[in-house]
What does this fold into?
Amino acid sequence: MPFEDQIVYDGWIGVKNIIFGGSLSTDIDDEYEEAKHRFGIIDSLPVPEEAEKTDAEELRFYMKNKRNRERYASEIEQLREKTDELEQIYHQEMGKARARSLGRELRELGLNEAYVAIYDDRIITSAPSESEVRELLEEIMPAGKADHPYIYHFDP
It folds into this structure.
């Protein structure tokens, strides 16, 4: 209920435990994340004008997690084809997603500290230093694409 441009409540608030099944819980989480991304958290009235999201912000939201990547697959494809910058963001976000599980795998192998370039979910090169990885990327990547792979610093 609004009062002097603030959201307030009047009366008792009761708390009850409600249990949702896995599928419904996931759907609720997805809808919440999308609403939060699109509109933000509204904490005062009147509601501020909705700020237009940039293509980069949209793409990062769509790439945020596996569920989003599956849910927004067609939107991701459309955005990444728009500009080279968006294509780079796509590859960087895919690399970050892969790096989460890659760290565990590399630790299990007992490897030492290294820098790893990830492109389209694949390791394409690695070296003991970031500068060496960047030099290798300049040699092996197509022209203008050397900055697309995500460089993951593995530090066991």
